[in-house]
Design a protein that fits this description.
The chain has twelve helices and no strands. Helices cover 59% and strands 0% of the residues. The chain binds a DNA duplex through α2, α3, α6, α9 and α12.
Length: 222
DNA sequence: ACCCAGGGTCATA
DNA sequence: TATGACCATGGG
């Protein structure tokens, strides 16, 4: 009843995961050297290709600005200039400022790490500029919480496999994944990365399930 | 030239 | 609740 309209079987979701993992291996998601870098990257990658985010992150590193204190000390206009390659640079500069102020108030990422997920998730969602996907990227990859990330690719993949209609509310899909798979941080981390990687391949590769023979559909485009 | 990318907010109905 | 406009760079 927690996820009306989306009750996938554990078998179906595991089947897709196993084929993707067999095809692409361990991708090492999320790339990043610190919790803070992952959080910043999660904001910068909103509706943006990752290669553009890498340029912005490189600019921040070169300016020695990829830390909470350094970013807080940076004027918004200067921050916007550094992250220009990632697009939406004005609004993202504001969002990073919101995130940094929230972090500082909460005692940095050490303070956040001490919070229970049930308290941390609403707190993050309360930051202007952090929606459900960015929030869950942060929870799953920066703080290793068992939260499944839902993105447009995941929706299309579910739709193509007939597991969901695709336009269900975010929370419905997230709850469906988590209930079917059970809490498994390493698998959640790998799974989302694999879906994105599979989309990047743009159907150049077509993993096929050994057991059921069903191919894993390409989640690129509608 | 057009379409898309590892989304989210806000105004409007 | 549910659309639509807006944000903006860079690669295919």
């Amino acid at each position: 009843m927690t996820s009306p309209g989306f009750s996938p079987s554990q078998l179906a979701l595991r089947c897709i995961f196993d084929q993707l993992h067999r095809t692409y291996g361990d991708l090492g998601w999320w790339p990043g050297d610190s919790r803070f870098e992952i959080m910043v990257g999660a904001v910068l990658t909103q509706n943006t290709a990752w290669r553009n985010v890498e340029k912005a992150l490189a600019n921040l590193k070169a300016a020695n600005a990829l830390s909470l204190d350094a970013l807080l000390a940076l004027p918004t206009a200067a921050l916007a200039e550094l992250i220009r390659p990632s697009g939406y640079f004005n609004i993202k500069a504001d969002r990073l400022g919101n995130l940094c102020r929230f972090l500082a108030d909460a005692g940095g990422d050490t303070g956040l790490a001490a919070m229970a997920t049930d308290a941390l998730r609403p707190a993050l969602l309360g930051v202007k500029g952090i929606g459900p996907e960015t929030c869950d990227d942060i929870l799953l990859y920066a703080f290793d919480r068992p939260v499944f990330v839902i993105d447009a690719y995941t929706r299309r993949l579910l739709k193509r496999h007939g597991l969901a209609q695709g336009d269900e509310p975010y929370e419905t899909l997230r709850a469906g994944f988590e209930r079917a798979l059970g809490p498994d941080v390493p698998m959640y981390q790998a799974y989302h990365g694999l879906i994105v990687e599979h989309a990047k391949q743009a159907c150049a590769v077509r993993p096929r399930c050994v057991g059921c023979g069903l191919a894993v559909s390409c989640p690129k485009r509608a």
